[in-house]
Amino acid sequence: MINLKPIIISGKEVFPLVEGGKGINGSDGRSSGAWAHENCVGTFSGVSPDYYDNEGHVIFERYLKKDRKERHEEMIEQSIKGGIAQAQVAHEVSGGNGRIHMNMLWELGGSEAILNGVLEKAKGLIHGVTCGAGLPYRLGEIASRFGVYYYPIVSSARAFQVLWKRAYNRFVEYLGGVVYEDPWLAGGHNGLSNAEDPNSPQTPYMRLVELRKVMNQLGLEEKPIILAGGVWSLNDWKDYMDNPDIGKIAFQFGTRPMITKESPISDAWKKLMLHLKNGDVVLQKFSPTGFFSSAVKNTFLERLMTRKQGEVSFVAEANGDYTHPLKISETKTVYIKPEDAEKAQRQINSGYTEIKETPDSTVVFLTPNEWKQMKEDRKNCVGCLSQCQFSSWSQANGSTGRLPDPRSYCIHKTLYDVSHNGSIMDNLLFAGHQVYRFATDPLYRNGIPSVKELIDKIKCGE
Question: Which domains, from first to last, does the chain contain?
């Protein structure tokens, strides 16, 4: 039995159990409201959340403008409507219990406008905002303006120090705590830095101790750390509880709540996750954000991996190392190393006849259908990221000025599709590295549990 003591989160005493916010629509008002109902913290995603018509049916996103900047504004408008709608649902389901948080990505295009719009029109319904995927330096200012607690998501003490010095020292009152998201264990995008080896994971313990030491030095002893990434059973984290070196701590569950009756993901998605094995989730860097992310190794991800493996470097003019000509279009020939010639020809012979440049002086090989779809996806870009490597969109300037990267993909399209009953094999499936534990977890042997049943088991350490 776990001695689980309530703590203050977002101004109220609740159990230190937090539902991780997963976008697009991986967690919504139904799931977050159910978590709050059990006097825990529920978190809905503010990334392209659903909103509804008068009869309660989902209104699917529609983009009517031809100009990319105008579609970007349409995306912001629809996201604000969705955020308000999910906050209302969560509040109703919660029955006034627990806390309701909204999760945002700082690198989301229009994130500040969306945050301002939702918090202004959903006053009293949202108690806290978690935000990561970048350094959300204006999060404290925005949340404090609306009297809402804020929780930056970081993967190191150093990242929090940067945020504190740059901004948060001026907005201490509504700093609710700090989310430490382990970059090697978390699902979706994570904060693995260029100085850290993706293949050499570090245990969270010393990183948490370092974060707490920094927070104590800044006078933040009473602010909790929320541990995220790889959290499945509290039995795994007993050494972190009532530990003076870590201090007040809560635990965020991201993957495990995805298979509950209230979870909005499709039945096919849930069924797949129940049968995944250790190693079926891969840490990779194909995302158009430029961040590392963890996702299920399905057909979608395998094709990206194969494309990357077939990548060949080139130069514009022949030199000592690059002497083999490769015609990449009707009007352009580049030069590759002779030892790569067979690799290139093998892909061409297999039907990957569209040869496309990357921003890194390499080429990759696509089928004509893949290239056709890629052009269509770029044409339909809605500016969902502040900067996108796939489409070269930039919120600041309209374009990053770099070549669009054919090693990536339209993240908005694939996440929106899979969250609305799209193919689970041909779309990106984010998941944490503990997902294989579904297969042996006794809770799931007799069907899909409710959120209440899951939380009851969590409280017992199961």
Answer: 7-281+438-459 (3.20.20.70), 312-406 (no CATH)
